[in-house]
């Protein structure tokens, strides 16, 4: 039979088992105990003292679209909802406005009464202009043709936006897919080729003008700073002595034909060695 354990040893064992229990303890570790103290003093990370809220008297302070804070009761707008115009829904009360059929804005709309051209109307166009053809055009023709192309591209983009709007409308409300997108893209491609050819033609003329300007700067007979409006000559040719002599000879020559030169018959030699009719006499 085992000997009875002394009371002091049993108390010591019970205390050891209590503090070394495998169950997790609810108390924090000892090194975190000061943080849970009730009267602990904490310091912020920033050493800059806090400043009070700014009060500048701005009535719009606090109005934000992100925070959904709108106007307060003291703020008033210059426009009231009661003063805004309202659309007239009754057709009988609407005012009739007469618009001329030759209005310039009609050039940006389709030729027909519909909002979008048909695929046949979009395909009715020629080929693009080439640089070889545009070289024979003057500045004004190129200017007009370029802005006609800009207006045509505006018409195509307007119809394309209207086509996309109708295609996004449900079929129950009259929407759906519409033909003509491929024809519009081909028409726009031809217009862009013409515009590129116009820019290429103008680029060639600019290089030709630049080369002529550089050559004129080294030419002593050309004055690039001459004021032609006041009668100053931009080209001042310098003739040397040989050139002047050649010019005088050209001025002194008779430019008539060989038939205009007539030979005196009296100077001709006769058959007997005499001179003309006197010798025969």
From TrEMBL:
A GO biological process of this protein is: mitochondrial translation
Compartments it resides in? Mitochondrion
Q: InterPro entries per the record?
A: MRP-L47_sf, Ribosomal_uL29_mit
Classification lineage: Eukaryota, Fungi, Dikarya, Ascomycota, Pezizomycotina
- Protein name, UniProt field: Large ribosomal subunit protein uL29m
Which keywords describe this protein according to UniProt?
Answer: Mitochondrion, Ribonucleoprotein, Ribosomal protein
Pfam families, from UniProt? MRP-L47
Show the GO MF annotations. Answer: structural constituent of ribosome
- Residue ranges for the region (Disordered) are 41-72, 235-281
Give Gene Ontology CC terms. mitochondrial large ribosomal subunit
Question: Compositional bias (Polar residues) at which positions?
Answer: 41-50
Query: PANTHER family per the record?
Result: LARGE RIBOSOMAL SUBUNIT PROTEIN UL29M (PTHR21183:SF18), RIBOSOMAL PROTEIN L47, MITOCHONDRIAL-RELATED (PTHR21183)
Q: Which organism is it from?
A: Salinomyces thailandicus
Q: Which family does it belong to?
A: Belongs to the universal ribosomal protein uL29 family.
Q: Spell out the Gly residues composition-biased ranges.
A: 271-281
């Amino acid at each position: 039979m085992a000997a009875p354990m002394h009371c002091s040893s049993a108390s010591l064992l019970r205390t050891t088992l209590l503090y070394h229990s495998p169950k997790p303890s609810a108390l924090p570790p000892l090194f975190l105990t000061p943080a849970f103290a009730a009267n602990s003093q904490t310091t912020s990370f920033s050493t800059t003292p806090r400043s009070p809220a700014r009060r500048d008297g701005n009535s719009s302070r606090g109005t934000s679209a992100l925070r959904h804070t709108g106007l307060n009761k003291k703020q008033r707008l210059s426009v009231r909802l009661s003063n805004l115009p309202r659309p007239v829904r009754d057709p009988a009360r609407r005012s009739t406005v007469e618009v001329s059929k030759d209005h310039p804005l009609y050039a940006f709309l389709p030729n027909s009464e519909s909002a979008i051209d048909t695929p046949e109307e979009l395909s009715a166009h020629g080929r693009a202009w080439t640089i070889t053809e545009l070289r024979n055009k003057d500045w004004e023709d190129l200017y007009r043709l370029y802005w006609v192309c800009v207006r045509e591209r505006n018409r195509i983009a307007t119809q394309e936006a209207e086509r996309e709007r109708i295609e996004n409308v449900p079929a129950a409300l009259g929407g759906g897919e519409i033909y003509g997108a491929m024809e519009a893209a081909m028409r726009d491609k031809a217009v862009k080729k013409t515009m590129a050819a116009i820019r290429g033609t103008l680029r060639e003329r600019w290089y030709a003008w630049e080369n002529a300007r550089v050559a004129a700067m080294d030419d002593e007979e050309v004055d690039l700073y001459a004021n032609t409006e006041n009668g100053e000559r931009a080209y001042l040719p310098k003739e040397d002595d040989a050139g002047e002599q050649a010019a005088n000879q050209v001025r002194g020559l008779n430019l008539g034909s060989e038939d205009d030169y007539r030979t005196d018959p009296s100077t001709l030699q006769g058959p007997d060695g005499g001179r003309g009719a006197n010798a025969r006499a």
